[in-house]
User: Fold this.
Amino acid sequence: MVVKEKPRSKFLLVKCKKCNNEQIIFNKPAGDVQCLVCGEVIAKSTGGKAEVLGEIIKELE
Ligand SMILES: [Zn+2]
Assistant:
């Protein structure tokens, strides 16, 4: 049995593809995350890890 690494909460620095705003988001959001500047959805909630629609610049621990 393979022991998987515990899923850790992370924050992601994501760039909005529409307006290039960079925003820090939680990697397991409770709901869809919108860009604070233009309102574009940059990450979708999937019940677990977010489906990031923007560009991930980097991950923050
Ligand atoms: Zn935007």
Summary: Strands lie at 11-15, 22-26, 33-34, 41-44, 51-52, 55-60. The CA atoms of residues 16 and 55 lie 7 Å apart.
